[in-house]
Amino acid sequence: MPVELRGLHPALAASAEAAEQRALEVGLRPGRVRFQGLERRHLHALAARGGYPVRHRAWRFGMEFHRLERGARQGSLRLLELVTPGDPTVASLDRANRLPEQRLVLTHVLAHADLFGASRWFSGVGQGFLGELARNAGRVEDWVQEHGAATVERRLELLQALAELVDPELLLRGAYRARSSERDLLGTLAAHDRLAGWERDLVSVARSEAYGLLPQRLTRITNEGWASLWHSTLLPAEHLRSVEATEFAGTHARATAAAPGELNPYRLGLELLRHAAGQGRDLLALRAWHRDESLVEELLDEEFALESELVRARAGDEPVRGAWRRVRRDLLRSLRDGGRPRLHHEVRGEELVLVHEHDGRDLQLDEAASVLAALESLWRAPVHLRTLRGGEALWLTSRGGAVLTEPVHAGSPGRPGGSLPRAA
Question: Are the CB atoms for 304 and 272 separated by under 8 Å?
Fold first, then answer.
């Protein structure tokens, strides 16, 4: 069968087979799925690399591993599973999980795998991403041999600060493989001769990985909501002993719990999809079409808002009927492009100009200055950023490693002009 189990309790085989059959009966198409049991330390090591067994070297992977280990020791963090898209979808489970938890994870993962195969946001990356990561690791090691580990790792650290400056729309149909855009800064850097050849190659590595990992960031609510919707229904009752049923329900409840006003992607996604089901919507079409921003925009209506604890909490003292549109607007802003600022860029002579498409949320200027400084060190010429702060137009310029912030005055000399979108 397409579902394969390795290193897990034999009793789970019957549960996996039954869950897969039920998934197919309701129209899900999870494809090939491999479940593997890992010791907790090995699961943390895999999670630190984003769920992929082979990645290029980076100090942040070690930092993330120690964060996970520390959280597990303190009891503040626990991974039930780690799901990696591909062919097959690979689900890594903590061997220490109890059987009811493992059964929940089996069904949860089958729904994830179905969405990976159906979503247009994942289809553009393709099934070869795992091999691409391995090839990237080899390319990085080649440059380490030529330029030294310290030099290469410093460049990769700089690129990490720029890794989110890509264009989500280029994910569709894999367009990022063939072209760039004014929002795809890494695409411009990878093609521009201001960078040395080996630096452009490192940028290409960072860009391919940024796009490969982007679908998971854009669809977290959709993905976790879809999996939560199905994991409570795919496993037939006869495969749960009565003593396990309570534990299963408790694990489900913990996954979808949220404090008032707190955004739990499992819970919000689950509630939105249940609302859609109650309206007779085509759930299979919804999971294939939407990312988080568009899902919330389409499904969070007044009827949903009146029943939603999240909306009520965020409405504050204002009646929900009057506040729900504001709450939805703020939520959509936080989800736009995976919650990252939208920047456009243009090369003007030797200099590089970025314009922040302001949506009502100001940039953190200290973070913006760090990004500009990192970018200037690669570009080797001044880099500018236009944004708004408290309604005031600002220019940030990184020159010679120092970042200067100035207000924009009409007719001020030395400001790059042109046709990029305005900051407001």
Answer: yes
